[in-house]
Each structure stands twice: as structure tokens, then as C-alpha cells.
Design a protein that fits this description.
Layout: E1 3-7, E2 10-13, E3 18-25, E4 28-39, E5 46-51, E6 57-59, E7 67-72, E8 77-82, E9 91-101, E10 107-111, E11 115-120
């Protein structure tokens, strides 16, 4: 099975920083796009940042200039560096990746389990 395992979430004060990591493991042939989503209580899940296999990035307007997405293709990992955190950033953060398994070679989307980020005011 392919798994996405996240780490780095937690409680931080307003203005602080956190770095989220997500590692993909299993019998993987290739990984296309990798993304970070978040979902606040009572809200829809939103795309926060994305990065293509070639390194092109995108961000939702609310985090531009504060968050940075990156990836390490050799390690099958994606990161989200979050600076100048605001209470509005409080949410469960999920990593997401488009992956081809060696067994099937079918491109499917996989999700991490989610990690809680809480920013206190």
C-alpha cells in the first residue's frame, strides 16, 4: 500500500512558524503533483499550496508570502514551511499526492491522515 505520513503539526503562538512534512512510502513508480490542503471546523476543505513534479508552485492568496511548499523527489517528500502564522490558519492540514504504484501504474490521488495546526492569539 501507498501511505502518506505527516509530521510537524502542533500548537504555536500567533506570529510563529511551523514546518509540515509528508513522506510517501510504498511501492511507488512515480509521483506527479503534491499538495497541501486544510480544513477548519465547519468549513470546506481548501487547497493551500501545490507543487508539480517540475517544481512549479501555487498558493492560495491568504498564505502568499508566508507559506512555502517544496519537495524532495529523491525522498518522496513534500514540505510546507509556514511563517507569520495567524489564528485564521488554524485547521487540520492534509497532504495529497498523485502517485503511480508499481503494481498498477495507475495514477491515483492519495491523502495523508491530517495533522492539526493550532495558532493561538
Amino acid at each position: 500500500q501507498v501511505q502518506l505520513v505527516e509530521s510537524g503539526g502542533g500548537l504555536v503562538q500567533r506570529g510563529g512558524s511551523l514546518r509540515l512534512s509528508c513522506a510517501a512510502s510504498g511501492s511507488i513508480s512515480s509521483i506527479n503533483a503534491m499538495r497541501w490542503y486544510r480544513q477548519a471546523p465547519g468549513e470546506q476543505r481548501e487547497l493551500v499550496a501545490g507543487i508539480t513534479s517540475g517544481g512549479s508552485t501555487m498558493y492560495v492568496d491568504s498564505v502568499k508570502g508566508r507559506f512555502t511548499i517544496s519537495r524532495d523527489n529523491a525522498k518522496n517528500m513534500v514540505y510546507l514551511q509556514m511563517n507569520s502564522l495567524k489564528p485564521e490558519d488554524t485547521a487540520v492540514y492534509y497532504c495529497n499526492a498523485e502517485i503511480r504504484r508499481l503494481a498498477t501504474m495507475i495514477l491515483l490521488t492519495y491523502w495523508g491522515q491530517g495533522t492539526q495546526v493550532t495558532v493561538s492569539s
